Amino acid sequence: MSPVECSTCDVQGTALCSAFSEADRAALNAISRHKTYEKGSTVMWAGDEAIVCGSVISGILKLSASASDGRKQIFGLLYPADFVGQPHAGQMPFSVTALTDCHLCLYPRAAFEDVLENNIAVERLLLRRTMAALDEARARMLLLARGTSEEKLACFLIEMADRAGGTTTTGQSVMLELPLSRGQIADLLGLTIETVSRQMTHFKSDGLIDLPGGRMLIIRNRAVLKARAMLD
Amino acid sequence: MSPVECSTCDVQGTALCSAFSEADRAALNAISRHKTYEKGSTVMWAGDEAIVCGSVISGILKLSASASDGRKQIFGLLYPADFVGQPHAGQMPFSVTALTDCHLCLYPRAAFEDVLENNIAVERLLLRRTMAALDEARARMLLLARGTSEEKLACFLIEMADRAGGTTTTGQSVMLELPLSRGQIADLLGLTIETVSRQMTHFKSDGLIDLPGGRMLIIRNRAVLKARAMLD
DNA sequence: CGTTGAATTGAGACGAATCAACGGAGGTGG
DNA sequence: CCACCTCCGTTGATTCGTCTCAATTCAACG
After folding, report:
1. A64 touches chain B (CB under 8 A)
2. What is the pLDDT of residues A25-46, one digit of tens each?
3. Which of A32, A116, A139, A197 sits at 20 to 30 Å (Cα–Cα) from A183?
4. pTM of the full structure
């Protein structure tokens, strides 16, 4: 809720703002606000005016939208250093919701756009990130449209393991806590809760993973799991 | 295959190059090459080095990729004035193939990037277009993952009708020629040829459309068809 | 007139959704 | 401390939609 110094920011080296000039960074810093969001709270609602943008400092968020009959879809996840918001857009085409407790650094959109105007480096970095996001979205289209439930879930688990990195490793296994509920995984993969659950237990009985309880996950055989993920 | 004057270009007002300065436009014009591609020919292959980019002058192209087992997916279509290529990318993540005879204006990627460096306006326009493409890709994710075959096809037909605009209108009806085969429509919507065909005849027997033959399509009741497309 | 490729149509199989019941974890209040 | 509740996840039985396989029609063309 309060202004903070960029120099002490956890993501100053990797977030979009790393490309700002000293002067512009100072200017933005003056109007930036750090805000915290509780797990489950929504930062921006689909259809709202896109009035802020900024960077994720800590936590994980989801981008999602839903049809009027309740069918939901999660378009992707945001991790620390990722950019949030829709510059130059009228309204948000999706909602942004915190999956874990989150810490964001937000600017008024108009002010951010003003600074962008004079800062080619940032605009360039934003362009590259947007292009990367587009490639990712397209890759996901193939998975959603053509993948089986097994491929979808295997792909998701591999991604989560790669993201979590070496949270806790013992021998070949990797342990991590999934930031999504079964229902959210289903919304991300275009499946139902039941199918997600069934595939999980299927992987478990095949000895590929373990489910110690809660949202904990242990990947026992990454190679085979990866092989069951979608073939490129 | 030969250099051409921008001043006589059909899409000079709407393509990306419309944002270039006179000087840069002249510089690019000197290295630009107009190339024609026959219907069915591939402009860029997935996995190839991304060595050129440019603009669509005429015709329609598809962006597609496929898994090693043959499952295909079309990510989207390119129309005149759309940008083609992947600046700053190593290799193409998808193939670009002409659906109709096409006319493209291409530059070597490196030269294009050099000009981009000094031309904020173009970079800004490219950013906006990329963001728009991202929003479109995300909207399509919802359709692919959650839509029924009926919704998918209705949505596709509405889009095609809107694109074709007033090609030929008689009363309430709109007539157009689909630039895609049944198989390509299937690849775009994540369906099979048979399901596409069945839904087509279903719409036809409901009096919403007519199929005079070939790839011709007449939309008789746009309102009802739109209602059967995916709910926002 | 036969050939070729695309589109249509039909019959059956399969995968995921749906409907429904159950079990465990965490919280609340008596 | 225990009964109760709710939320979430698991599991089972069944249904439904789409894929698959197969045959037929149709249009274009030599």
Report:
1. no
2. 888 888 899 999 999 999 999 9
3. A139
4. 0.94
